[in-house]
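Training component of the fellowship. As part of building independent skills, the fellow (R.M.) carried out the full modelling exercise for a liganded target. The chosen ligand was 2-phosphoglycolic acid. The inputs are recorded below so that the supervisory panel can assess the work.
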Amino acid sequence: MRNKVIAGNWKMNNSIEESVKLISELKQGLNETDIKVIICPPFTSLETANALIKGSQIELGAQNMHNETSGAFTGEISASMLKSVGCKYVILGHSERRAIFGESNEFINKKVHKALSENLIPILCVGESLEEREKNITKDVVKKQLLVGLDSVSSDQAEGIIIAYEPVWAIGTGKTASPEQAQEVHEFIRTLLEEKYSKETAEKVIIQYGGSVKPENAFELLSQKDIDGALVGGACLKADSFLGIIKAVKN
Ligand code: PGA
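Fellow's submitted model of the complex:
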């Protein structure tokens, strides 16, 4: 039985002051029966967030990292730096990193290995563009992203990883994949994991859906058999909508 996990990707939003306000409101609204929640603030708010979430069921993630340990990589951040500010998770291969910053599947795979070697849990994002969906190559695209992203990742390591299926056409657009469309790809991802590893491993991997998740559609999406949580963008920036998603979901 997989537990549901909701993560909020703040993207490039929130000053320290705004972060404090949002986290305080979230803490006030959560109670012990709610499911596990991860927040992924920008780098500048991580340390503050880490101090504020102590003793709550909120855990901390980052939105990206570099695969090298240290050195001349201006503007980048390392896995050990993220660990030092309390991160447990890191989003890797988000479609915005792929599309805007040209990250390849191979580069993302290097980051996955680095994260795992530092005991950070990768939230590995995969998902097709609108053009790819219209060309009927969704499964080919997702398969390549998943298998290259997980290249040389062992079965033990894979069991702890989170996969986020985020159709690019649904991100920030208000267009959500229908529960059936999402379930179809989630099931496909689980089958790929079964083929690569084993049924046992595949059954343990959390597969989140992302793309315009809101309180109104969260329950239906997360009721699907292979949808184990959500990676939320826009709706995680306001405490009431993020809480609305969390409350819509029960383990
Ligand atoms: P959205 O973003 O919820 O605003 O569509 C999701 C994401 O990019 O992770």
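The panel noted the following from the submitted structure. The chain has a mean pLDDT of 96. Residues 9, 166, 171-172, 210-213, 231-235 surround 2-phosphoglycolic acid (CB under 6 Å).
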